[in-house]
Amino acid sequence: MNNLTPVVDRxxxxxxxxxxxxTILDQxxxxxxxxxxxxxxxxxxxxxxxxxxxxxxxxxSGSVKAHAALRIVxxxxxxGELAPGKILIDSSSGNTGIAFALIGAVKGFAVQLVMPGxxxxxxxxxxxxxxxxxITSDPLEGSDGAIRRVRAMVAAExxxxxxxxxxxxxxxxxxxxxxxxxxxxxxTDGAVTHFVVGLGTTGTFIGTxxxxxxQNPAIQLVSLQPADEMSVIEGLKYLETAxxxxxxxxxxxxxxxxxxxxxxxxxxxxxxxxxxxxxxVSAGAAVAGAIELAKTLQQGLVVTLLPDDGSKYVSLGIFD
Length: 320
Ligand SMILES: Cc1ncc(COP(=O)(O)O)c(C=O)c1O
Known about the structure:
By secondary structure, the chain is α/β, with parallel strands linked by helices.
């Protein structure tokens, strides 16, 4: 036992490990692209089709929203909209708010977030942990109620706030045009054939999709929405009845698929049990959508994205 020799040489991986050279904000992006093909083939996807997924929960603040939040803040600092003494305010069902709270903590500005009162206690705790102020809106009005509440607060005292406005701020989709898109293109050596992702503010889909289409117009862009208004998948919007984000471009997608919440929950559980991936429900929805699409193909490289991990969803009972 004293002379154990390693079965796998991990020295290479240690050399490649990320170094923390600046602040935590320097670690946003460059997330790994995981190969989920084995998982997908076991669920009936043809052997000629591969499914890869970006591990976005590895970003600082624990979600894909770190890209958009950081880009929004940097742009506002550049234009002077986020001047010293101003409070950053926005509505968020969680992840963008958590990212803003972290960035405010690092950069030293105050953050106020409006979230529907029924968002999970884990999300509220995270925002408060980073020192941001949390204002809750009517749970029955969902994320649209939070948007209306922020608009009213900013209208009453415009000079007090920088309104980040993630639903209408072009820096949201630009973040993905400049990072997520190029990363997927490079990580697949340009071999990606389909990109599948859920729609929340739509920033991830629009920014990544625009970049990929510019590299190769044959790449198919597939957006995902919950099956109907009653189908709740945290992080995703049913655009037919929600306030449409100003950054959304309805002409970009090649296909727009619907995912049942039950299917999203089931795949979320399976990802933990069969692939060791403890991810959130919108990640389950993304993989469910990617698999549904992949089942229609014989050949291809389908790329999707896992927006966050499962820790904020434990109280929903999804893993019980
Ligand atoms: C868990 C989760 N999944 C997916 C999304 C959707 O991403 P986007 O807002 O870029 O459309 C969000 C956005 O808030 C999210 O929090």
